[in-house]
Amino acid sequence: MELKLYDTLTREKRVFTPLDPDRVRMYVCGPTVYDFAHIGNARPLIVFDVLFRLLRHVYGRDHVVYIRNITDVDDKIIARAAEEYPNLPLNEAIRVVTEKTEQQFHADADALGCLPPNVEPRATEYIEPMRELIERLLASGHAYVAEEHVLFRVASMPMLNVRRSLS
Q: CA nearest 31: which of 108, 94, 83, 92?
């Protein structure tokens, strides 16, 4: 079975060819756990669940790895934790907010009938590797700092030349 997906870079449907057909990997951004999920949060959850199921159908259940992260560090999380739990040390308050909200998210995902990912890492477990990656991106010119944020330098992406040649 040939699987075609829409490529927003080239603006066309392209045949999906995994890097390794024996281990098709899918990494998606999961929720930022500071409040109840809303209908807009359900859309990507369902879309990626459908894609996960399709990839498992095409490549086999044991050949697809679905990773969805949990963002458990964010300005909104810190603000909510400080507001709702002023008597707790901030890190404890953050943990209370994120664990409660993560449980609510999982209950919503279950209610929607979505399959759980194979792996669901929490961002706070990978802060140092993220910092190292950001430093490498900055040093190589693939990222830059603007208004206290690190942004990816899209023009450094080799595939942009493909898109320009298609225009």
A: 108
Task: Measure the CA dihedral 106/112/115/119, to 10°.
Answer: -30
Q: Which pLDDT score is estimated for 154?
A: 86
For residue range 87-142, list pLDDT tens digits in order. Answer: 999 999 999 999 999 999 999 999 999 999 999 999 999 999 999 999 999 999 99
pLDDT digits (tens, 9 = 90+) for 4-48: 999 888 899 999 999 998 999 999 999 999 998 888 889 999 999
Cβ-contact 102, 69 below 8 angstroms: no
Tell which residue, 64, 16, 161, 48, has the closest CA to residue 112.
48
Q: Which of 115, 116, 118, 120 is nearest to 98 (CA)?
A: 120
Against a cut of 0.85, is the pTM above it?
A: no
Integer Cα distance of 149 and 144 in angstroms: 8
Q: Are strands 24-28 and 4-7 parallel, antiparallel or unpaired?
A: unpaired
DSSP string, 105-119: HHHHHHHTTPPPPSB
Residues 6+ apart with CB under 8 A from 126: none
